Amino acid sequence: MGVHKWNSIQPNGTTVSTQPVQYFLTGFLFAVLWASASSMGKIGLQSAEGLVLFVVRFILAGILLLGYSLVIQKDRLPRGSEWGHVTIFGALNTTLYLGIFIVALSEVTAGITSIALALNPLMISVITAFWTKRPIARIEWVSLLLGMAGVSVASYPLLVHSYATPVGLLMLASCMVAYSVGAVYYATIPWKLSRTAVNGWQVLIGGILLIPVAFLLHTKANQFDDRFWFSVLWLVIPVSIGAVQLWLYLLKIDAVKASLWLYVCPVFGLALASVLLDEPFTGYTFVGTAIVFAALLLGQQKRYA
Which of 141, 138, 124, 145 minimizes the C-alpha distance to 247? Predict the structure, then answer.
């Protein structure tokens, strides 16, 4: 008996085929790497301003990605409207989302920023339905609500005892909207460039657009010490390169299904924040984890049938 595959019809009419096991492992690895960004960013903030930290991160990540894309993969440069597409995607996915995110991280704990990812699946579902007229099945809505419940249970002690400002929470909400719009935008574009090229250009352009803002909001001296560079290199290689490449792969299969993996991110984010930053990891977290994975499996089962 051959390995079962399932297909996904994209908004632009193309079909993407993959294997359930491959898809699950890809999503799991994405969730672990993406969840590490909050804790690693918080560590970097001990040495430098958030926007300075992320400008260095984005520029370095863009150079490495484009070096690999242009030299190793022999990818071509963007042409015509492709420049507009990578610029819009970079502005949404890098400048707005991650730029606002790192500023918000100075106002709230790493655990709360991880929990904020739970807003994305619902946002992506609604935006996708509005943008592409994609019908949302009842089982998907049930899985979304179940996932939000699981994250709420897992994060209860953190929300009760952690520090957060109204401005920080508002910034988190704003960057989640930018991320969701960027995800849907990427999924609806019939890209002719490779994922590496798209990722490289969007993160480099997004970083360049963030430079004036970093100068404008500069208020203190930055220390480019070992802690700063450890944070930057982790955010560049495992997160900006590794996790984003995996995310773009998941998005091309199905934007809404990919968004369900964001439910797993808060769980890993809470665990990492507990180990690295001494934030609470309690029995609520274990119960919430079980509910989150149940929601993920429920949302995926229709694809495996």
Answer: 124
Q: What is the pTM of this model?
A: 0.73
CA 236/CA 9 separation, integer angstroms: 32
DSSP string for residues in the chain = -PPP-EEEE-TTS-EEEE-HHHHHHHHHHHHHHHHHHHHHHHHHTTTS-HHHHHHHHHHHHHHHHHHIIIIIS-PPPP-THHHHHHHHHHIIIIIIHHHHHHHHTTTB-HHHHHHGGGHHHHHHHHHHHHHH-PPPPHHHHHHHHHHHHHHHHHHHHHHHHS-B-HHHHHHHHHHHHHHHHHHHHHHHS---S-HHHHHHHHHHHHHHHHHHHHHHT--S-----HHHHHHHHHIIIIIIIIIHHHHHHHHHH-HHHHHGGGGHHHHHHHHHHHHHH-----HHHHHHHHHHHHHHHHHHHHHH-
Residue-level pLDDT at 140: 73
34-38, 94-98, 202-206: lowest mean pLDDT where?
A: 34-38
Q: Is 91 a residue whose pLDDT tops 50?
A: yes
Q: How far is CA 166 from CA 2, 230, 294, in A?
A: 54, 30, 32
The pLDDT tens digits of the residues spanning 267-281 come to 788 788 888 877 767
pLDDT bin (cut points 50, 70, 90) of residue 158 is low
User: Which letter, b or e, does each residue of 27-47 get, where b requires 16 or more Cβ atoms within 10 Å of its Cβ?
Assistant: beebbbbbbbbbbbbbbbbeb
pLDDT exceeds 50 at position 12: no
> Structural domain boundaries of the chain?
12-304
Give the pairing of strands 6-9 and 15-18.
antiparallel
